[in-house]
Amino acid sequence: MTGLxxxxxxxxxxxxxVTILLMVMLTVMVIVAxxxxxxxxxxxxxxxxxxxxxxxxxxxxxxxxxxxRRHIGFDSVLLALPPQYRMGAVLxxxxxxxxxxxxxARAGFQVLEVLAGDRLVSLTWVPIQFTQSVIPIGAxxxxxxxxxxxxxxxxxTKRGISLEHAEIEExxxxxxxxxxxxx
Length: 183
Prior knowledge:
Structural class: mainly alpha
Number of helices: 7
Helix content: over 70%
């Protein structure tokens, strides 16, 4: 296993763990809040914190999807291009994505500066900078994940291997194998 593969695997486990933890925490919080409402008690902080947690899940899950190249793509269009243009299109696409997330990270840091000293409305002890720190952190994680996953994506695209089609074919094979026993 190469060093890059180890980093990929380590980062994948970390992002999976953080995303799952956030989803479990949000689920528990929603269940507790619903039970509390049914009992006539309502948490003043629930809506604000739930929205923040959903944003965190989105950013960390998005970085995880980037690491595994599971975002929306156009493999069929890309692979239909002649090889000499295909790799140029990959490079252009990567540059556009990375540029967007560099700008997003920069804007995220600017947002944090603007929000200095502000606190949540319902939980006045929680700084808004903490809750909004997910913007630059998420953007930086996305950039790292995109770069780490690029060599494998580059090689597969160069060989004409579709990430979308490989996943679909694997699922079809799995289902065929399951159904073979039934026949």
